[in-house]
Design brief:
single chain; NE0471 N-terminal domain-like; 7 strands
Length: 83
């Protein structure tokens, strides 16, 4: 089953705080994606863009633009769980 996002909050230093429907809460560091995926560089180069992150209607993806998005299963798997 694809994890659905319940809450999303952008934090300083390109971190996303994400809470899923099952209660799991993670911090996902977007800096590695910014360094490795060309489209993600805009999150660093365009002032304020990172803070404009949104959850799609299905709650299975976060996005900034049509070209910059992250699926919820990636965030769920690679995020650092908060206890």
């Amino acid at each position: 089953m694809i994890p659905r996002i319940k809450e999303l909050k952008p934090l300083d230093d390109y971190l996303l705080q994400v809470i899923f429907d099952d209660g799991k809460e993670v911090l996902y560091d977007v800096k590695e994606d910014i360094g490795n995926i060309a489209q993600f560089a805009d999150l660093k180069n365009i002032y304020g863009l990172f803070q404009q992150v949104q959850v799609d209607e299905s709650r299975t993806c976060v996005f900034w633009t049509d070209e910059i998005d992250l699926p919820s299963d990636t965030i769920y798997e690679y995020g650092i769980e908060r206890i």
